[in-house]
Specification:
single chain, 275 residues, alpha/beta, Rossmann fold, 3-stranded parallel beta sheet, 9 helices, 49% helix
Length: 275
């Protein structure tokens, strides 16, 4: 592999710990594609941060896909934890990029039923499994404000009947910290912040279809260019040999005919002389 795709700090830790335990040396030429700047900066814990080999998106799904497609010639390893959001691996498979999916960690639910919710003003949920554990422990109870990270987490929370007050990532808030800062700033200013409402997510599907069409077009252009620059094929040597033989035979026949005609003429002359 020439590049690794990271979506969280957990997968970063798991990747380098496994490499260390297995005594695998990660080459210096390895590229790292990260979903957010926070994940990219976290890589400094294990490697020297270099802009030429570390790339990050703004946290949105479409921007992350654009970044991966920009380096489409790389052989990717997609580092994931279990359970994970299926949108990214499914999109990469549809785009027919050279990607190997690897599960590096498994998330296990912790019993949080003894957590005193009344002491907290806000709870942050980062995955659908967080939502499931939270719902299981506090279903039917009064909940504090809830912040969610990622579209799949937000939709799982809405499906569980949980009201979302803060959502990330967004263009204005690429990280959970930034989203909470903006929310607290609005509350401090006396603004009334309405709960987050989710619409139908059609933008991602349209984006994937557009990228599929672009990649297919580029492939066709490459094939046409290759065909145009390819040298013309030479005719089979057998045909040439056959043609040469045929010409030689024709020439021999013509010569023989001429010789016969000459002989006949000489014979006629000899007959006239005798007479």
């Amino acid at each position: 592999h020439t590049a690794v795709i990271f979506t969280s700090r957990t997968t970063v830790d798991s990747f380098f710990h496994i490499c260390e335990e297995a005594r695998i040396t990660v080459p210096e030429t390895m590229k790292y594609i990260c979903q957010t700047e926070a994940v990219a900066l976290y890589l400094q814990k294990y490697i020297v941060y270099r802009k030429r080999k570390i790339f990050f998106a703004d946290g949105s799904f479409t921007n992350f896909l654009e970044l991966i497609i920009k380096h489409k010639d790389e052989k990717y390893m997609l580092a994931l934890s279990e359970p994970h959001k299926p949108e990214l691996p499914e999109a990469l498979e549809r785009l027919k990029l050279n990607v190997d999916k690897v599960i590096l960690a498994k998330t296990v639910q912790t019993d949080v039923s003894n957590l005193p919710l009344a002491e907290y003003d806000l709870v942050a949920l980062y995955s659908p499994s967080d939502v499931a554990a939270f719902k299981c422990a506090y279903e039917g109870k009064a909940l504090p404000r809830v912040a969610t990270f990622g579209d799949a987490t937000a939709r799982a929370a809405v499906a569980a009947g949980i009201t979302i007050n803060v959502m990330a990532p967004t263009p204005a808030a690429p990280s959970m910290t930034k989203a909470i800062d903006i929310y607290l700033g609005k509350l401090a200013a006396g603004e009334e912040v309405a709960p987050v409402e989710l619409g139908e997510s059609k933008d991602n599907e349209e984006f994937i279809r557009t990228q599929q069409a672009k990649l297919a077009k580029k492939t066709r252009v490459r094939k046409s260019a290759t065909a145009a620059t390819a040298p013309a094929k030479k005719a089979p040597a057998t045909k040439k040999t056959t043609a040469t033989k045929a010409t030689a035979k024709s020439a021999t026949k013509s010569t023989a005919t001429k010789k016969t005609t000459t002989t006949k003429s000489v014979t006629k002359k000899a007959t006239v002389a005798k007479a």
